[in-house]
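so my prof wants the structure for this chain in the tokens format not the other one, which i didnt know existed until like an hour ago. anyway here's the sequence
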Amino acid sequence: MLSRIKLIIISISILGAFKAYADNDPLPSWNNGDTKQSIISFVNQVTDKNSPHYVPVAERIVTLDNDGTLWSEQPMYFQLYFALDRLQKLAIKDPKLAEQEPYAAALKGDIKPLLAAGDEALLYLASHTFTGMTVSEYHQMVETWVSTAKHPTKDKLFTELVYQPMIEMINYLKANDFKPYIVSGGGIEFVRPWAEKVYGIPPEQVIGSSFKTEYQMHDGKAVLIKKAELQFVNDKNMKPVAINHHIGRKPIMAFGNSDGDLAMLHWTTSDSTPSMSVYIHHTDATREWAYDRDSPIGQLDQGLIDAKQNSWPVVDMKNDWKVVYPYELKQ
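here's what i got, hopefully its the right format
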């Protein structure tokens, strides 16, 4: 009888220890594999004042791509859905707009011609559908759209398709005095209106592609007007340039998911300062999408090669993440 009581007490103690471990796990939606442990080990080293790899708080900069790294990006970038929604509304007043290809096909649900048309067509769409409005008007339009628009196949708000494990990662790094910056190829003014509410990252810590704005006086009020002229494309080799321009410090940690992030990841680990670059690899065709080398969106080809050569952790979404989206926690 006594032995049985002891066994029960021991079992309760073990369960309590496991619960305490789970409660203290900074990344509960991550499986306990090599990827998670390597990230935690790096953070422990750079935040331990007794460690030879200690990095002062002011230098703990982490940069994170947005599309495909913090939220989904298939079957096309979410900002494009926003632009097409705007185009559809404009076409009601001017039907000729809906007759131009490849936009006409996209408005009918066929996005392949739009993706095949390349960056020029995408930038034209993004610029000409919002030219002439004030920055404040644009922000309000974005806020309204992200609070109502749903993904065509997931039937979820686009902001519900953020990655729960990456939300946890941002919070974990912030708890260890890292300062996170979103470094997106998407529009800076598109991400800023909702980034703080969704990611906890304020607008001044968002870097992205941009179109020129012009200062004007409207009815005695000072406003900034969006122009059609492109100012900066924050992608590929331009990402380190933008980081240096906006932040003035090189990150010691960077997260990306495509070859468009490769320059940022290389630059992050380019000197003797303790640093880590991480790739998110889309391997889960059931919960999200599985794609890499052959995808027209978020292509990851050379990045897989360089990650192996440089021993960068590569997050296998299917095996490293217990859940993908926050709403899965409720299920």
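also thought this was worth mentioning. DSSP finds 14 helices and seven strands in the chain.
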